[in-house]
Design goal:
Length: about 325
């Protein structure tokens, strides 16, 4: 059986405000919970006009307070810019407030350009090569198991909790899979970013996973764009806004989600059309039967039953309907 979750990038559609986007995130989380989705993760992006989620930890707390049972996580905290100790404290607070519902996804991304990253680190030039050490330190702090010879030995991440959030390392290649395997964390593969490297990365992760004090067995989920509608034609109509949005993101343009009408009326260059066609490999678009079938194919390909679904389209009601139709199709097999 396929298990579903949501990755929410808090996208802002043309004509909306960030407040609108946050309100829709709450509504979507409540909707996903009613539909049986198991987890709801919030992404982190900076210095962009179309994605409102600059602070997944704050959004997680808000979403968790507005829902009852769905697991709420970060997808993910961009660890190179932050202190592992402080991240551990933040997640201890959330685990205390919402016991058993908090998940900690972490990523290596800089979160924006070099200037944006420097602003996040308050001007301190940190090497991205420190990421493996930070992942290890985060686990130590989260479980309060710092080695006696560690420079921060004796420092306790409070408040203490009976259980700790599961750590998921987000990645799009074998390098990320290797780190997750070596560190003994769960692994999330971003098919929605790189649809070509997943099999190799996940195979490596399963084969080389080393149990840690935090996690005894490998755990994988895969994140994919999905646009599902009652008919293939309607799904294609709504997916046009996702096509153009991705094109704008990749070209450094306005990243608010455009309407299907804007996408329809746009004049595309040959290069644009090639890019749109290539990006379709990152997504599933179609009616419920087609969407469920293609997700089942990814299930076999990636050796996992767990998927995070992103549906960055203009029409919010169509987005909710997409999640509903997909859940029903997956449930009915």
């Amino acid at each position: 059986m396929i298990r579903l979750g949501v990755l929410d990038q808090t996208p802002i559609s043309n004509g909306q405000t960030p407040s609108d986007a946050f309100g829709q995130s709450v509504e979507l989380a409540q909707w996903a919970e009613r539909l049986g989705y198991e987890r709801y993760w919030l992404a982190e992006h900076h210095n962009t006009s179309g994605l409102a989620g600059t602070s997944p930890t704050l959004l997680m707390t808000h979403i968790a307070s507005k829902t009852e049972s769905i697991k709420v996580g970060s997808g993910g905290v961009l660890l190179p810019q932050y202190s592992p100790f402080k991240v551990a404290e933040d997640f201890h607070v959330m685990e205390t407030l919402f016991p058993g519902r908090v998940e900690l996804g972490i990523g290596r991304s800089p979160g924006g350009g070099n200037t944006t990253r420097l602003a996040l680190t308050d001007g301190i030039r940190r090497s991205m090569n420190e990421f493996p050490r930070q992942v290890a330190d985060l686990q130590y702090h989260l479980h309060n198991r710092l080695p006696s010879d560690h420079e921060f030995a004796g420092v306790i991440a409070n408040p203490k909790t009976e259980q700790q959030p599961e750590i998921w390392l987000l990645g799009i290649n074998q390098r990320s899979a290797r780190l997750a395997a070596e560190q003994g964390t769960a692994f999330t593969f971003g098919h929605f970013i790189n649809p070509t490297a997943g099999e190799e990365a996940i195979d490596y992760y399963y084969e080389h996973f080393q149990p840690s004090f935090a996690q005894s067995e490998p755990h994988v989920n895969v994140c994919v764009f999905v646009v599902c509608a009652p008919t293939d034609e309607e799904a294609e109509y709504h997916a046009k806004s996702l096509d153009l949005w991705l094109l704008k993101v990749e070209n450094g343009l306005d990243t608010r989600v455009p309407s299907p009408e804007e996408a329809r009326d746009r004049v595309y260059s040959e290069r644009d059309r090639e890019k749109v066609a290539k990006n379709r490999r990152r997504m599933i678009v179609g009616d419920p039967e087609k969407a469920a079938r293609e997700l089942a194919e990814l299930q076999k390909r990636y050796q996992t039953d767990e998927f995070l679904i992103i549906t960055n389209i203009y029409d919010f009601e169509a987005k909710k309907r997409s999640y509903e139709l997909l859940a029903e199709a997956v449930k009915n097999g």
